[in-house]
Each structure stands twice: as C-alpha cells, then as structure tokens.
C-alpha cells in the first residue's frame, strides 16, 4: 500500500480532513470539542508545562499501516536534518524538560538518528523511542539497534495492535506479527521488558477496527498472558490508544461507512476526567522541519501552535507554557472513555 | 430487506436511554442494575460481555448483538472467544429443544407405541 500522498488522495490534505470532520459533526449535530471543554470548565485548554519534547524525525517508514495518522511509508521523503536535531537538543537542555520522545515514521530510518540519541543521552534525561519493531529486522544497517538502545538506556515503546497474527497483520501488513515477535525476543534477550533489568519495553495497543480501546489493565493482562505462553515474550506495560479519525484511519472509516458512528461514539464517550490529563498539556510536538505543534495529531493536521514561538529554534519554555492549545473535533479521540495519550489511558 | 420495512433500526440502539421518558424512576433502577451487573466482579467485565453476546444470540436481539460484538472487541476478546461464546448459546438452545424430546418419548411410550 502506498501513502495517501503518493496515491494523490484528497485525504492527504489536512484541510480536507478537517473539512470532513467538521461536515460530519455538523450533519450529526455533534458539539464542538471546544464547547464540550467549556461545559467541563476546561476552556481554554492550557499546558501544565512542557515536560516532554516529542520529536517527529520524519515520515519515512518501512511499513504502511492501515491506521497510520502520519500517513508514513517508504514513499515519504520528509526527514529532519541534523541542524534541526541540534535545535531540539538545545530545547531539551532547558530545565523542566524531562523527556525526549522520538517518533516518526520509523525514526531509526533518519540517517542522523543514532547521532541524535547519542547527543541526547548526554543530558541524562529520559529518552523514548517509538519503534515499530520490524525495522530491527530490516537489514544489516538496523540489526544492532537493540544493543544501541540498551547502551543508551533508551525506553522502547513498540506498537503491537494485537497479540494474535490475524489482526496485527490486517492493520500493519502481512508478516508484521511474526517479525514483531522475533524483534521482541531479541529485545528480551538483552533484558528489555524483563523485571528489574532497568531496560523498559512498553507495548502500544490500538483497536484493529472502528471501536474504542477497552480497559487497559485487562488488555495488558491478556497481552502478557498470551505473549508469554504462546511466544515466550515479555514486556513491562501496555498503553491502550484510541485511533484518531484522521489520515489513513479516516480513510478506512470513510471506506467502510463507519465515520458517523465512530465520531458519534467518541463524542458520547467524552470523559472530562480524561480531558484534564490530555498529553498536549505536558508535551510539545516538533515536526520534521522544526515547526511546533501541541501534539503529533495536530502536527499531521498542520495545526501549528499559536503565539510568537513557532519553531524549535525559538524555544522558550515560559512562553510555550502559557500558550493556548489548539483544538478540533479529532481531540475527542484523546478524551473518550478512559482517555488516550502517548502513555496510554489517562483516567 | 430494506431498512424502512423492518421494525429493527440500528439507530434506535442509541435511543435506549430514552426509555425513561415516561417512567424515569423505573428506567433509572433498570440502568443502575444493568450497570452493576456488567461491572467487574467475581466474573470480569470481559467474561460478562461474552456471556451477554451468547445470550444476545439466543434471544435474537439485533441491538444486543451489535452492542456486545463491539463491546467484546473493545474488551480485547479474540474472534475465537466470540464464536465459542456464540456456540455455547447455540448448544444450550439446541440442547433445550432436544431435552424436551424426552417428553415426546414418554408420550410415545404412554400411548403404547
């Protein structure tokens, strides 16, 4: 499968995606997300502080997953330069910024990825890598990445949509499940995911279809039991994430006629408790070209942050801490049910 | 069959909460009870959802089948678990039919056949 962009799909345009979300909401008479926050006394939504710098180092990926909100794939060419990474490192050095969360695409495919991690590790702050697992088996160039992660004590966060092959492959591509298991075994062999090893391996679950993620702790128990018993694989925690109705997941919702029901479900499941803990309140998202966003989803919808600071080169924590977070209908995805963030359930 | 010609309309499921329009007190009691029944207890919420899916098939409630197919998936159930639950319902239903044949057997014998 090619990316929406490579296929020339209208949905490659963020404006088109926002237009669809607006039109569906109006048709169904759904309240705006801002109105819902007003009801909950949370509008305007402001940060609690920039603790996490989430850096998207590019849209290039070895996979083309059906639900990808980035529209990443082998045909994407957007990639962060070393100069922009250097600017991210300056921001990371700021007191109060505790974590560097590296994402993509497959971030490991950025030619400066290892340099970035090596430099970032000198600050002694937490470094997370959003790894799709299969990249670890994608050729000699990547084979020693698990050792590289371990050497720099990088926390690995890996997508695994389900503990069985059928659903995982349906979402992420044929053969992805088997290769993911092989990669997980390799990470386990180095101590990743093993209790008290100091090497953290967390998995990310997201529903393979137009439904929400249920109870995270039940899912974590199921994943742990199945992966250990059937595949002899271990991990630390499971993060249950809701699929955002944007980009390629929006495409699948439109194709199978589930867009109305899904959006309605997200709105019905709005949880004000989850809304108080949404990730945009403590995270700043950096795009491949250094532009700043409130979250990775706003980034993909080209909703740049408001205010005087617009690029990572202009990073100013006190200015950013007092900004107003931009909202649209997709934000319901983070506040439905138990909520959803890059760290899993919120409420 | 076109949707307009059937009594069952998928969008009616969303109106379930409106049953209290004319009798709010009893509806509230029902929904409170319903919520308690499906909470985690000696059985997990996921196990209860699978039981509900089986019962939904036995009582042939299209709304319940829609709701509990989604609910079991949301709670992380596998396709195997869904279909095993449905077969449990089917087995009880067919078993309950067949066990009544003992009455027919008794009657046959009573009639001296």
Automatic annotation (TrEMBL), chain A:
Pfam families, alphabetized: DUF3641, Radical_SAM
Keywords: Iron, Iron-sulfur, Metal-binding, S-adenosyl-L-methionine
Known cofactor(s): [4Fe-4S] cluster
Domain Arsenosugar biosynthesis radical SAM protein ArsS-like C-terminal: 212-345
Gene Ontology terms, MF aspect: catalytic activity; iron-sulfur cluster binding; metal ion binding
The keyword ATP-binding is assigned to this record: no
Key word NADP present: no
InterPro entries linked: Aldolase_TIM, ArsS-like_C, rSAM, rSAM_ArsS-like, rSAM_sf
Domain Radical SAM core: 55-194
NCBIfam families the UniProt entry points to: rSAM_SeCys
The protein's name: Radical SAM protein
TrEMBL record, chain B:
NCBIfam families reported in the protein's UniProt record: ahpD_dom, perox_w_seleSAM
A Pfam family this chain is assigned to: CMD
InterPro entries named in the record: AhpD-like, AhpD_core, AlkhydPrxdase/COmuclacdeCOase, CMD-like
Taxonomic path: Bacteria, Pseudomonadati, Spirochaetota, Spirochaetia, Leptospirales
UniProt name for this protein: 4-carboxymuconolactone decarboxylase
Molecular function GO terms recorded: peroxiredoxin activity
Record-annotated Carboxymuconolactone decarboxylase-like domain positions: 24-106
């Amino acid at each position: 499968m090619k990316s929406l962009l490579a296929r020339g799909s209208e949905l490659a345009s963020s404006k088109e995606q926002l237009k669809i979300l607006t039109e569906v909401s109006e048709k169904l008479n759904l309240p705006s997300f801002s109105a819902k926050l007003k009801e909950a006394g949370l509008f305007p939504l402001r940060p609690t502080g920039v603790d996490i710098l989430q850096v998207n180092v590019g849209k290039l990926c070895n996979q083309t997953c059906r639900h990808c909100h980035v529209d990443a794939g082998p045909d994407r060419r957007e990639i962060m330069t070393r100069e922009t990474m250097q600017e991210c490192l300056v921001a990371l050095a700021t007191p109060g910024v505790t974590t560097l969360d590296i994402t993509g695409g497959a971030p490991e495919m950025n030619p400066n990825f290892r340099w970035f991690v090596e430099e970032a590790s000198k600050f002694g702050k937490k470094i997370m890598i959003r790894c799709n697992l299969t990249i670890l088996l994608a050729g000699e160039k990547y084979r020693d990445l698990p050792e590289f992660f371990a050497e720099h004590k990088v926390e690995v966060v890996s997508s695994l949509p389900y503990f069985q092959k059928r659903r995982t492959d349906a979402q992420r591509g044929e053969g992805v499940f088997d290769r993911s298991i092989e990669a997980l075994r390799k990470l386990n062999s180095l101590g990743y995911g093993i209790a008290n090893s100091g090497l953290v391996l967390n998995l990310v679950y997201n529903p393979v279809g137009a439904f929400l993620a249920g109870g995270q702790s039940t899912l974590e128990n199921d994943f742990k039991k199945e992966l250990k018993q059937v595949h002899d694989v271990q991990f630390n925690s499971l993060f249950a994430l809701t699929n955002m109705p944007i980009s390629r997941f929006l495409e699948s919702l439109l194709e199978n006629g589930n867009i109305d029901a899904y959006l309605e479900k997200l709105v019905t499941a709005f949880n004000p408790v989850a809304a108080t803990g949404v990730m945009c309140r403590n995270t700043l998202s950096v795009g491949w070209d250094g532009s700043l966003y409130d979250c990775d989803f706003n980034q993909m919808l080209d909703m740049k942050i408001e205010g005087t600071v617009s690029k990572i080169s202009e990073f100013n924590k006190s200015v950013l801490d007092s900004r107003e977070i931009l909202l649209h209908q997709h934000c319901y995805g983070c506040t439905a049910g138990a909520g959803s963030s890059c760290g899993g359930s919120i409420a | 069959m076109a949707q307009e010609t059937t009594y069952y309309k998928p969008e009616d499921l969303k109106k379930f909460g409106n049953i209290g329009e004319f009798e709010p007190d009893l509806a509230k009691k029902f929904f409170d009870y319903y919520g308690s029944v499906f909470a985690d207890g000696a059985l997990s919420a996921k196990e209860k959802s699978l039981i509900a899916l089986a019962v939904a098939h036995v009582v042939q409630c299209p709304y319940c089948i829609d709701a509990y197919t989604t609910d079991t998936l949301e709670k992380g159930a596998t396709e195997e678990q869904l279909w095993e639950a449905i077969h449990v319902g089917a087995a009880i239903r067919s078993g309950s039919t067949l066990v009544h044949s003992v009455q027919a057997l008794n009657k046959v014998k009573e009639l001296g056949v």
